[in-house]
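hi! just following up on the protien thing from before. the input was this:
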Amino acid sequence: MKKYLSFFVVAGLLLAVSVAGAENDRENKERPEWNKTTQGERRGFTVEQKEAREAFRAEIDTERKIFHDSLKADRQAFQAELKSAKEEFKQAREERKEEFKNNAKNMIGERFEVAVRNLERMQERIGDLIDVVAEDETKDTALAEELLELSKTILNEAKEKIEDIKDLIPEEGEEVTPEIFEQIKLAARDAKNLLKESHRALIDSLKTIKALKNEDDDDEEDDDEDED
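and the predicted 3d structure came back as:
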């Protein structure tokens, strides 16, 4: 009886090993096909990513053009209004002219220079975000970096325009002529528009970073679907 029991135990072990071996062979045969399918899906997703990024860049470019055209139209309208304002300024009393001079100084210190500092802080923070995203070599941060550099370039132009306004403001005791009034007003509008453009480029850079981070969410969803 013990001999029979030993036989059945050994036979059972051999059968288990045989079944396990057959199962492994079957998995090894099927796995290459599964890998091939997965790689194909990944390649397809990479193409989709590239197309999505190109579409996003085109969208950003279109929005920037619309924004720039809007600023240009506003400037032209402002120039038309400025002509009549200049004529009125010719008839203004000295008190009004002195008030305008003081307002121009306050505008530079309280509005423009504060806006410049805020934009510089934002640029630094967005630069840090880009560095974090760029640690993933699969992420193309070129557009985000390009927009950040554009923001910095435009901000430098705004700084130069602000310095021009400072130079235009007459010293104490000097008169503000209608011509100077016109130049200051137009330069102030240009500085304001440049600050807006710099800020817009930063917003677009941030949108680009968010779009890249959203790709991770898409990857996770695809991985979950593969597991299912």
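The CA atoms of residues 49 and 55 lie 10 Å apart.
The chain has one domain: 2-227.
cheers
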